[in-house]
Amino acid sequence: MVLYETLRLYSAVPLIVRRATTGADHCGVKVPKGTLLLIPIAMLHRDEEVWGADAGAFNPLQFRDGIGRAAMHLNALLSFFLGPRSCIGQDFAMPDNCNLC
């Protein structure tokens, strides 16, 4: 729990940059192909709408029921990002760090 909360508040990568491979229309906003998209991980991890009123506070107990129940969204913890371009070291880092906790 402490490890997940530390990763939430102090992510190693505060911002992720991706390029749109296709054009899209999301909630009325047109995103042309090739547009650079900035994903502010540090800001999302402190968003009160996602993590609750104490989003800026260190509260490891919010992970007591698992990562998926800690926030309002199942994939809210983005310390290693998600999908095919997520951190390749995640599977190595987490077991080692969990042994230290």
TrEMBL record:
Its main location: membrane. GO terms for biological process: lipid metabolic process. One of its GO terms (molecular function) is heme binding. It is found in: Membrane. The keyword NADP does not apply. Transmembrane segments: none annotated. SUPFAM superfamilies: Cytochrome P450. Keywords: Heme, Iron, Membrane, Metal-binding, Monooxygenase, Oxidoreductase, Transmembrane, Transmembrane helix. InterPro entries: Cyt_P450, Cyt_P450_sf, Cytochrome_P450_Monooxygen. One of its GO terms (cellular component) is membrane. Belongs to the cytochrome P450 family. This is Uncharacterized protein. It comes from Zea mays (Maize).
